[in-house]
Amino acid sequence: MPLIMMISKSLNDLLIVITAVSFLCFSVFKFSWNWLKITWIQLAFIFFFFSIISACFSFLVETSLSNGLAWIRFPLFAAAISFWLIKEKEIFYFTLMVNFFSLIFIFSLMGLETIFTDHANFEWPFRNELNGPFIHRIGIIFFAIAFLILFSELNYKLEASIFLFISAFFSLLTEHRLGNFSFIIIIIVLCFWPKFNLKRSLVITTSSCMFLFLYFSYNYDHLDRYLFSIYNYNNSSLLQYVGLWKTGLFVFLENPNIIGIGPTNVQNYVVENLLVSFDPSGDPGEHPHNHFIQAFAESGIIGGISYVLMFLFIILSSFKKTTYQNNSFDCLFSQAVFITSICVLWPLANNHDLFGQQQNAYLWYVISIILVSHNVLRKI
Asked: Alpha-carbon distance 351 to 292, whole Å?
């Protein structure tokens, strides 16, 4: 699926819709609705319901309603993967292996892109500039498990080290700071995982510093860009993000109702009501660039709360499934899943349109991997 995501947004979305609809048909014909008892799914439907209600009372009903109705395909897709299509551990690990080699292929394409172009955004040769900021989501779980293998009694430490080096190198090449920050979160968590270990922390910190020194010695212009974002905050793209967050929060505080202004309506609301955007350029943006802010602004208080609780439940479920009984791959993978859930679902990680297509496909595909692991690894 990662390759399909890169090649064609339409084909990828068609696959998601077919999977979701097929799952519903299967549930109807088999009268199998036990999956509706799962808490995160119930919360997803609550959010969906209030999004539709909000759309019906918005000032662009048709557009808002179509976007709101289409959103449900993502949680249905994740439910189909985790409760219907992948139930056996062997199939699950085979799927992960396919994903792993797909990432290796993508890294190879990126290497060629770096050689033959002046950038490295995972957009060549498919000309899709949004692949770069979000392809790292799929790689996070492999990055986490590779780190855990290094400090376990399992073999494959050399292979894990090589993968860590390659993935970190190419992640830095993309220059997507929020994506790279996810890897930093993994490193920090592992220093204290499952309890603080001074030796491991020193090894991780020293290795990371040496790697960064070597990388930025070779790519000094990239260091300038990162430092520019820190020391010239008023002129950086980070300030634009903060401005869009403030705009979204302002819209919510202007309408602190049970129902919101309707899906994909923040920009329209700011323009129609002649409000001032907090973005330095004055552009209200197409959306607030934060899922949680957008959920509260566009789907109301109950919709926003249900959306936050949905993600919290997935994270807590990952934590409950985590085990430290031994150094088997299953146990290490359960730990990697929990770390991944934190990195993928933390508040600043999802800076795209909540009701959008491509980036949600990346997000919910990783969520489906997390959910499948809850089922197939429950007996370890």
From this structure: 9
Can you give the pLDDT at residue 333? 86
347: left (phi over 0), alpha (psi -120 to 50) or beta: alpha
Query: Which positions of the chain have pLDDT values less than 70?
Result: 1-3, 6-7, 111, 114-136, 171-183, 193-197, 213-239, 274-285, 324-327, 348-351, 378-380
Instruction: Say what the pTM is.
Output: 0.84
Residue for token digits 């197939």?
A: 376
d(CA 10, CA 126): 13
Backbone dihedral region for residue 157 (phi beyond 0: left; psi -120 to 50: alpha; all else: beta): alpha
Q: Which amino acid is at 217?
A: S
- The residue type found at 83 is F
Question: Looking at residue 362, what is its pLDDT?
Answer: 83
| Integer Cα distance of 354 and 264 in angstroms | 8
> How far is Cα 128 from Cα 250, in angstroms, rounded to an integer?
32
What are φ and ψ of residue 276, in 5° steps?
A: -90, 125
Q: Cα 380 vs. chain centroid, distance in angstroms? A: 26
| pLDDT tens column, 206-264 | 877 777 766 666 665 655 555 555 555 454 556 677 778 888 888 888 877 888 899 98
Burial class of residue 231 (count of CB atoms within 10 Å of its CB; 0-12, 13-18, 19+): exposed
How is residue 265 written in tokens? 């309506």
CA distance linking residue 68 with residue 49, whole number of Å: 9
Residues in contact with 359: Cβ distance below 8 Å, sequence separation at least 6, in sequence order? 130, 133, 134, 350, 352, 353
Q: What are phi and psi of 87, to 5 degrees?
A: -120, -20
Dist. CA 147–CA 187, nearest whole Å:
8
DSSP summary character for residue 355: T
Reduced to 3 states (helix: H, G, I; strand: E, B; else coil), residue 376 is: helix
Helices and strands (DSSP H and E) totals, the chain: 16, 0
296 and 303 Cβ atoms separated by less than 8 Å: yes
Longest Cα–Cα distance in the chain:
62
pLDDT at 379: 53
Is residue 285 classed as helix, strand or coil in its secondary structure? Answer: coil
Q: Does residue 82 contact residue 371 with C-beta atoms inside 8 Å? A: yes
